[in-house]
Amino acid sequence: MQSSFRALAGALALALAAIPGVALAQFALPPLPYAASALEPHIDTMTMEIHHGRHHQAFITALNAQAKDNPALRPDAVEATLREISKHPVAARNALGGHYNHSLFWEVMAPASQSGRPPAALAAAIDAAFGSLDEMKKRFDQAAITRFGSGWAWLVVTADRKLAITSTANQDNPLMDVAGIERGTPVLGLDVWEHAYYLKYQNRRADYVTTWWNVVNWAEVGRRYEAAMR
């Protein structure tokens, strides 16, 4: 039923796009929820400015160009399209994945003074899955540090409603129906592409990964956990 609805929506989008004067909604770069300098000293201002204003913007530009010929690429259907990304070109997988991943990344961070602690429901789920918050961090760090090349580390809610840790290459994420990806709904994600840390940490990815916990927005991670569990 859902796939039929999406197909109908796509056909409608194509029809509307063919009508002169009718413009479909475009992707837009979401603003940072804090100043670019707010994560100092853990993530430096210049890295944030370049990462958000150039790297994320590049995915927005690519999506708007691709959307002219691919009506499934719509701002209101990001997660639905990612769940069926195997039906789309690799360029769409990279651009839509990059946009989703970075949008989540900005939101699951906050100034260190606002980082807080995992809310009760999330904390209980972490203890159930990993034994303790420290053990979860240790396993997450391992996933991030050992991800070969460029990619992401994730804390996800699996189909059986449990927490798990995984990592993906490039701009892939656990929503995607792609072979080799451990599926789940992301609640926390860490970018381990070099552009996310190289200006400050150079080749010291491990230092970046372990320091990053200082700016995790646990309230937002908890909100995403509860949404995934509904």
Characterization of the model:
This protein is mainly alpha-helical and 230 residues long. It folds into two domains: 2-19 and 45-107, Fe,Mn superoxide dismutase (SOD) domain (Helix Hairpins, Orthogonal Bundle), CATH 1.10.287; 112-229, minor pseudopilin epsh fold. The protein has nine helices and three strands, in the order ααααααβββααα. It has helices at 2-17, 45-66, 78-82, 90-107, 120-130, 133-146, 198-201, 205-212, 218-229; strands at 151-157, 163-169, 185-191. A three-stranded antiparallel β-sheet has the order 2-1-3. Strand 1 and strand 2 form a beta hairpin. The longest helix is centred in the first third of the chain and has 22 residues, at 45-66. It is globular.
Topology:
Layout: H1 2-17, H2 45-66, H3 78-82, H4 90-107, H5 120-130, H6 133-146, E1 151-157, E2 163-169, E3 185-191, H7 198-201, H8 205-212, H9 218-229
Antiparallel strand pairs: 1-2, 1-3
Helix pairs in contact: 2-4
Search tags:
about 230 residues, mainly alpha, Helix Hairpins, minor pseudopilin epsh fold, 2 domains, 3-stranded antiparallel beta sheet, 9 helices, about 10% strand, disordered N terminus
Helix content: 40-55%
How many beta strands in the DSSP annotation? 3
Biggest sheet strand order reads 2-1-3
CATH architecture of the largest domain: 3-Layer(bab) Sandwich
* Alpha-beta classification: mainly alpha
The number of helical segments is 9
CATH topology of the largest domain: minor pseudopilin epsh fold
Low-confidence stretches: 1-22
CATH class of the largest domain: Alpha Beta
H and E string? HHHHHHEEEHHH
The amount of beta strand, in percent, is 5-15%
The largest β sheet comes out as:
3 strands, antiparallel
- Intertermini distance: 20 Å
Mean pLDDT equals 92
| Overall radius of gyration | 18 Å
